[in-house]
Amino acid sequence: xxxxxxxxxxxxxxxxxxxxxxxxxxxxxxxxxxxxxxxxxxxxxxxxxxxxxxxxxxxxxxxxxxxxxxxxxxxxxxxxxxxxxxxxxxxxxxxxxxxxxxxxxxxxxxxxxxxxxxxxxxxxxxxxxxxxxxxxxxxxxxxxxxxxxxxxxxxxxxxxxxxxxxxxxxxxxxxxxxxxx
Amino acid sequence: xxxxxxxxxxxxxxxxxxxxxxxxxxxxxxxxxxxxxxxxxxxxxxxxxxxxxxxxxxxxxxxxxxxxxxxxxxxxxxxxxxxxxxxxxxxxxxxxxxxxxxxxxxxxxxxxxxxxxxxxxxxxxxxxxxxxxxxxxxxxxxxxxxxxxxxxxxxxxxxxxxxxxxxxxxxxxxxxxxxxxxxxxxxxxxxxxxxxxxx
Lengths: 181, 199
Known about the structure:
The complex is a heterodimer.
Chain A: H1 2-37, H2 40-62, E1 65-66, H3 70-80, H4 83-103, E2 106-120, E3 125-137, E4 144-157, E5 160-168
Chain B: H1 5-14, H2 19-64, H3 77-94, H4 102-112, H5 115-135, E1 137-152, E2 155-168, E3 174-187, E4 190-198
Antiparallel strand pairs in B: 1-2, 2-3, 3-4
């Protein structure tokens, strides 16, 4: 009887030790996971990558348009935009549709490179630089490509980061200069 | 069933098994069964804790070493500003020359270009030199915007938008817009360019 209690006790203490170890292990890994997940700079890095991905996708969307499927193309434009840019797009949509229908062009784009230049997490604003190659395929003519350098401004919305401004990087701004091309 | 129970049962089988006997025999069996249940439960809980711990460990590692986490572009503001300033400066001077002062440009190129970028530049400059003096060509480069794509340790990749204004003596100047992908390396506290690719 004494022997079984002893054995029982040993088993019990072994079991509790194992339980304590397992609990400790779980607690330690839990805290290190928490620390990693709530690391400020890691979070900032994640947001930066999100912004870039959203910016590149939005630029891609807004440089892609097929005259045979204008509705879907322009809806994608609007889904990529917010704020002033969205207002502009909506305002010009009818006129623009008419132009593309007459020109019957198919436009596609490739993002060559992109970088985030500013990111204000608290304000939910960011700036990106994106280099794209745009190919315009008009009917009965050879497609033409051109490289374009774009500056985008993104704003965080309830539905992710969206472009609130987009334009070409200014060229030839030096006062004495008059762009000749 | 536990093997140890069998012989005792067999021994009792010969004698008349009273209800009391059956009871006393049931008791330890139930206790053991409960013990077994407890043990199984404990093992399950331990396994669950270990599994949770292991998963959390993997998650923590993945979060800390996520592809984006090592990239310090923008997360290290000071270093990002430095690499952008150094590289913008380097590009401006390397791609700016006048026919009378090619030597300065070349010397500067020697300071800031390394590896493939240095080789490419030497090849280009070798061809250009004669043209520049003969046609009195001058080039002025201005960085419009630059951003860090990636910054890890002493290495960086940048996207640079620049304007190049070329002028031949007696002719009108022309401006060309360019976008370059730059690979850079920190060398003795200064960022140097190891590769230049037109985009």
